[in-house]
Amino acid sequence: MRRRRQAENGDVREEVLTRARSGDDVAFEELVNPYRRELQAHCYRILGSVADAEDAFQESLTAAWKGLAGFEGRASFRTWLYRIATGRCLNMLRATRRSPGGAERVVGQAPDSTRLGEVLWLEPYPDALLGEVLDPTAGPEARYEQRETISLAFITALQVLAPRQRAALILTDVLGFSAREVADMLETTEHAVYGAVKRARATLARQLPTAEPPPLPNSPAEKQVVDRLVRAWEECDTDALVALLTEDAWVRMPPRPGEYRGKEKVERWFATVTFRDGRRYRLLPTRANGQPAFGVYLYSPLRRVAHGIELIVVTLAGKRVSAITLFESGEMARFGLPRSVR
Questions:
Q1: pLDDT exceeds cutoff 80 at 197
Q2: Are 46 and 167 in contact (CB under 8 A)?
Q3: Longest dimension (CA), the chain
Q4: I want to staple 337 with a disulfide (CB 3.0 to 4.6 A). Which of 126, 175, 295, 303 is the partner?
Q5: Whole-angstrom Cα distance, residue 167 to residue 63?
Q6: Is the whole model's pTM more than 0.85, yes or no?
Q7: Per residue in 114-157, pLDDT tens?
Q8: H or E stretch including 84?
Q9: In this structure, which long-range contacts are made by residues 66-73, counting pairs with CB atoms below 8 Å and at least 24 apart in sequence?
């Protein structure tokens, strides 16, 4: 993973800072607005849950507002905000014991799963919230790196790390802070930061899949693959869908623990669960975690109205699909998707 440092957007203007310290909430908004999107994404990377990330972000803003008198300008205002946000996220992880968010749902003759997932609290992150976090003006290599650091695979792998390792890795390798800056944020030593990052990188190397890079977002190559996927899904064509998969493709369903790996397992899942009983679907496009995503709607028996049943996020590897992650229908509203369509 290559380091990437967001622009500091210049030092805060002293007169704006003075107004904010005197209780001017408009001035405070002016101070924090340039960093709002990236701080929300930072909280999401650490926590893996959009809802938790929003709570941590709001707590961070409250803490920054109350503690503004303590900002002495020895570090940049952005660095100071990241220190507060990181601390709030780590406090939240200490206070919350992560546990399965839902039980295995038994539907049809579901095949035995390959394994039980570890990160059942994972939630998809709407691209609409990313804003300048994904820079559309960046070159192809930079855009790939940016998407990699918000992809579902990367976020899932991060959740396996110990919390402080996770924070240290994100602050150094994703955001480009120096070990000295990170040590100050985490109230530890530079040596401890180096050790935490080294262990985190070793764990990520085992967790992250090795695959072809995905096509660029909204490119003809991406459109070709997702169009074939949508057609196969809406026609309940198991063979066509399986033909799109890599040999080691995954289907995951947080907060349900069952995960399916490999064409044979995935084929059995779709044939016996998703496409059973003459079902018919409609898919509406959106984007999550820098990846193609769709609201999935199941038609009623009369086939006049289709009701939203889940949100899927598709991971591409070259011209193939390497993973499909199915989230419950409650996630759809966050993406502005309707409850039903005709």
A1: yes
A2: yes
A3: 67
A4: 295
A5: 19
A6: yes
A7: 666 778 899 999 999 987 676 655 555 665 677 789 999 999 99
A8: helix 77-95
A9: 68/17, 68/20, 68/21, 68/28, 69/21, 71/17, 73/11
